[in-house]
Amino acid sequence: MARTVFCQKLQKEAPGLDFQLYPGEVGERIFNNISKEAWQQWQHKQTMLINEKHLNMMDPEHRQQLEEQMVGFLFEGKDVEIEGYRPKEG
């Protein structure tokens, strides 16, 4: 049976992640409180951030910036802001 969590991002019970995908305390918090659906939403935003801001994941400062955006997106209701990005209307 699939494991479920009360997703803090989506504010509903939903299938949880199969294993901890991010290290440390933040990763544990994500595993226990974020659904697969919300994590997929974050992965999409993360890809946009990395590409648009030309982040280098070998740079500790860039990784810290990305983690701050991730925590804000998943737990604080903040959307990822990318300067000049306009979502497609449809």
UniProtKB/TrEMBL annotation:
One of its GO terms (cellular component) is cytosol. It holds the Pfam family Iron_traffic. It comes from the Bacteria. GO terms for biological process: cellular response to oxidative stress. Keywords: Iron. The keyword Iron applies. InterPro entries: Fe_traffick_prot_YggX, Fe_traffick_prot_YggX_sf. GO terms for molecular function: iron ion binding. Could be a mediator in iron transactions between iron acquisition and iron-requiring processes, such as synthesis and/or repair of Fe-S clusters in biosynthetic enzymes. Necessary to maintain high levels of aconitase under oxidative stress. NCBIfam families: PRK05408.1. Belongs to the Fe(2+)-trafficking protein family. This is Probable Fe(2+)-trafficking protein. It comes from Pseudoalteromonas rubra. The lineage of its organism: Bacteria, Pseudomonadati, Pseudomonadota, Gammaproteobacteria, Alteromonadales.
